[in-house]
Amino acid sequence: MDGGDGGLRLTPYRKPARDDWLKFSELSGGRFHRTLLELHDILEEEHRHFGYRVANEIARFVNLAHEQADGEAAAQIAFDLALLQKVLPKFHGTQQELEPILRRLAAALGATPLDSSEDVPAGTSVAGLEPGTEANVEGRAVRFPRTAAKIRRMLKRLEQRGFAGFIE
Predict the structure, then answer these.
(1) Could you tell me which of 154, 155, 160, 119 has the C-alpha nearest to residue 137?
(2) Which of 7, 10, 56, 134 is at 20 to 30 A from 113, Cα to Cα?
(3) Going along the chain, which residue ranges are E strands?
């Protein structure tokens, strides 16, 4: 990274690869790795799973955040953002198609899914979160607040309209 003359030189781009996945599997005691594999298993049952390329991209993104920013706190935020950007955009469909899988994802991420008459709680907003903080929804810490908030909004739209997609 050091250009030798005191300036910074960027390293050449390389595609995310298996090495990123292996490093990711050791990060935070394997916590993010286990979560991603659990989500993959849930999605695979409904034929909505992601492949090795997406897994390697998520791994690379989280690894870089851990290395270049604030360690564990940055990795936590990066993983939340990666789920939001790489996993959830695939979701669009009817209530019958999406509701069961979105509820399972919410449960796997530690978010309380909506009851049929419940509104999206104000606590799901993540605006102004400091690095490393967790959103507090209904008195519970949510590990991945951005992803959880998006799932909750999608569930609410499913209930209201019978159809939801990632794009609002």
Answers:
(1) 119
(2) 56
(3) 92-94, 135-137, 140-142, 163-165
